[in-house]
Amino acid sequence: MADQILYLTELLGLKVYDLKHRLLGRIQDAVLVPVVHPVRVDRYLIAGGGGYSWLSVRHDQIASISLDGITLIDEQIAPYHPDEYMLRLVRDLLDQQIIDAQGRKVVRVTDVTFDIRREAGRDALHVLEVDIGMRSVMRRLLQGWLPRRVIRRLQSRIPPSSISWGLCNIVEPDPQRRLRLNISMEPLENMHPADLADIVEELSHEDREAIFEAIDTEVAAEALSEMEPELQAQIIESLETEKAADILEEMDPDEAADVLGELEEETSEEILEEMESEPKAEVEELLEYDEDTAGGMMNTEFVSVHEDATVADALDALRQNPDLVDTVNTIFVTDIDDRLKAALPVARVFLARPTAALSSIIPEDEEPIHVPADEHSRRVAELFDKYNLMTLPVVDEDGRLSGVVTADDIISLLRQK
User: Which pLDDT score is estimated for 52?
Assistant: First the structure.
């Protein structure tokens, strides 16, 4: 098995021979072209005798690969020219941060392991895994000082630490600030938003931007919601205005307003201009409130029904708001002027007969606990603690329902304190 393995540090400096076994040069880098093949080394970059210009050898020009060198079956070798679809393993991967999607962490690449495969009578290198442990560090430190086979014997005493190539995601931003390589972001998009947020926090500013430019907008919004306000603002500021607006549209209006409140006024206005009219109006309304008030904390997305409605009507209102189904736990009852009349737990509504009037399941003389929009956040937190609330309705000066503060908002408030 060891004879079928080659490490990137062993590949570097490996001699390349022509058909007559004359030395052409030494390997300087290896290239993947993910849009062509996700794991096979597509080209090998060689420095010739002078070392001033590099040559490019295609994978199908290789006859054999071993620790003793690389031999060719074709001498029609072209000069190396950069290509935007190339992933050069030394330049773009070695010593870089990558995301271990399975381990949900950011790691630094210290070496790459190849599998030597026989294809159509020729040897080819397939990327097997990236190495991140002490074994690969030792291998790099000793390379050039000791023979490769001696280093292999020495490294056998150290347990390997590596990640399968299929479980890695490469963040490779180019000067135009977009992902240069066609590498799937699906493993990241399938993570829990809190795990993705933890990973993004460990990345550089440029890599954070590259991730948020590439992943699904809804996923980006969920991950951004898990971050601290200062980092949220940094990420949104780094994105194109249209992309930033798309992400904020997917967030709860109160969270989007909080993010915009952290930005410079000019930047905030530019993003608002790009947002769709409905979410824009909701966010602009929330931005009018001081962040330390109930109005500044509340969310304008809730389920309310008229006081003359039936239980079936209330259930239909829930079905018409599928985006809230995972978070809503209260249905609010209002009069014809939208003044708050009652707050019904969803469970109580589910247990009632569909034909029953909502008024019949509202306890007599039960006044819903609520606060005015200008109530200080400290008082709001006290009410949640005193009455063990999950939601707290917020009303305007005329008693009309304006929004809802949730337990999540209180948790975020306490974390910031």
Answer: 66
Nearest to 106 by CA among 177, 162, 169, 38: 169
Residue 218: count other Cβ atoms within 10 Å of its Cβ.
15
Query: Could you tell me the fold of the domain covering 304-416?
Result: CBS-domain (3.10.580)
- Indicate the length of the chain as a whole number: 417
DSSP secondary structure letters along 214-251: HS-HHHHHHHHHTS-HHHHHHHHHHS-HHHHHHHHHHS
pLDDT tens-digit profile of 26-74? Answer: 999 999 998 899 899 999 999 976 656 899 999 999 999 999 999 999 9
Domain ranges of the chain: 2-165, 186-288, 304-416
As a whole-number percent, the residues of the chain with pLDDT over 90 amount to 73
Residue 178: pLDDT band with limits 50, 70, 90: very low
Classify 21 in phi/psi space as left (phi over 0), alpha (psi -120 to 50) or beta.
left
pLDDT tens-digit readout, 221-240: 999 999 988 999 999 999 99
- DSSP labels for 125-150? EEEEEEE-SHHHHHHHHHBTTB-HHH
Distances in whole angstroms, Cα of residue 356 to Cα of each of 153, 271, 314, 318, 353: 79, 46, 11, 17, 5
* C-beta neighbour count of 298 within 10 angstroms: 26
Q: SS3 for 345-414, per residue?
A: EHHHHHHCCCCCEHHHHCCCCCCCCCEECCCEHHHHHHHHHHHCCCEEEEECCCCEEEEEEEHHHHHHHH
Is residue 312 within 8 A of residue 360, CB to CB? The reply is no
Residue 86 buriedness (CB in 10 A; 0-12 / 13-18 / 19+): buried
Distance CA 259, CA 273 (A): 15
CB 176 within 8 A of CB 111: no
Is domain 186-288 classified as CATH 1.25.60.10? yes
pTM over 0.90: no
The fourth-level CATH superfamily of domain 2-165 is PRC-barrel domain (2.30.30.240)
Q: Cα 409 vs. chain centroid, distance in angstroms? A: 23
In three-state secondary structure terms, 66 is strand
